[in-house]
Amino acid sequence: MIWFIENFGLITGLTANHVALSIVPIVLGFAIAVPLGWIANRRPALRSVVISGGSLLYTIPSLPLFVILPYVLGTKITDDRNIVVALTLYAIAMMVRTAADALAAVPADAIEAATAMGYSTWTRFWLVEFPLAGPVLLAGLRVVSASTITLVSVGAIIGSANLGYLFTNGKQRDFLEEIIVGIVASLVIALVFDVVLVILGGVVMPWTRRDGWIRRRSVLPVGQVG
Amino acid sequence: MIEFQNISKRFPGGTLAVDDFSLVLPSHKATVFVGSSGSGKTTLLRMIDPTAGRVLIDGEDISGLNPVLLRRRIGYVLQATGLLPHRRVVDNIATVPRLNGVPKRVARRDALTLLDTVGLDRSLAERYPDQLSGGQQQRVGVARALASDPDILLMDEPFGAVDPIVRAELQVELNRLQRELGKTTMFVTHDIDEAFAIADQVVIFRTGGVIAQVGTPAEILANPADDFVATFIGADRGKRTLHLQHREGDSATLIVDGDGRPAGILGADR
Ligand SMILES: Nc1ncnc2c1ncn2[C@@H]1O[C@H](COP(=O)(O)OP(=O)(O)O)[C@@H](O)[C@H]1O
Ligand SMILES: [Mg+2]
Q: Which of helix, strand or coil describes residue B251?
């Protein structure tokens, strides 16, 4: 506990950076994966390209990707932008299939009715397809969030100042308290993110707050996340 | 007035769903398309992009119109209600006015009035569609179709999914609305009884969107054009034929239908 109190400033700094490094990939990944998923549903050929592209991307181990990206982006190896880009790619890879499946599962009669009432393709997407896919998208996003927060730690190996530093440093010094603080702090971030996502989901999708709605309406595509 | 002029529709697969169909739907009247499944009724109702021929609305060829804007001028009631499950009843009804740029507050207020019009209690306004019965959902569907006050109302087997009692209720209600509002209505059904209950003009279809007979219910019942029509309405006519039955030791006369089920009593003195 003494180490924790004495290093409180360091820990909050690392935590803040960890949060910042996580938020950007989660948000960007979602924002890119949803339109990609929509495109994937237009044509079967596009679908296989997008889906297998996503799976392939996800099989690249994170550490080599962190090391390769500086050459591609022209950044320094210690630059946090490498981590943000790498994790955004993983977030897209994880999210794109869920997005495609979620959008494909929107009831056809709702889409047909919306078209018949005079929604344009664009407004129909935003006001009908996207919200109705929402619960499944949210489930996918929660997995992406947890996974991204975990992966940020790996960046500490190439010198990023985030909670992962407490694992690597604690391991080197064989100092358990530091490692535990690192684990607990990242768990707390993951938990807070998850709670925020669920609350946000309830705010933007008020119809899901009723008992049993999710159970009745949306079948989560099991085993297709990640 | 809606005019179909030599309409044909061939689907990409090659099916010729409608072949050289011509008909006038008079303004402010209900025209009912009746025919067995696959006879091209739905295809005609969605007549926005015929392969050949023209559709005129009040003399204007619709092929020159923007389909999105055209759809907002037409009220459409679908069989599976097509209510948006994530919108409250009041917002479902307000959909088309909102698309047309009516302010939210105004559109919602008008939606409440429409609940009265279709005979629903205003307390249902804040519910979601899956919290209503099938019959209530269909009424909301009708209210939604009426919301932009369109001249034209299209209804594709709108009461097909509700039970017979509710269905009869909805038919009565629709007749009342039709008298009050005088929309140019195109109604599709495969139930000849429903057609006769609602129509000013009945159109009986063979397959391929070919007209077997057009006329008022009375004209068709009195003079079926051919055997096909006679069979089509005849199968049901037996059921509709009421006759009287006297019962021993009873002053009342029982009215029974074609299946022998009692339908009412005449001259009972109690
Ligand atoms: N989108 C489509 N693609 C190909 N064939 C279709 C399509 N829609 C309808 N059809 C065919 O056109 C014919 C008429 O269908 P439809 O208009 O739905 O009949 P109804 O509404 O009278 O049951 C049927 O043979 C049907 O299989
Ligand atoms: Mg049909």
A: coil
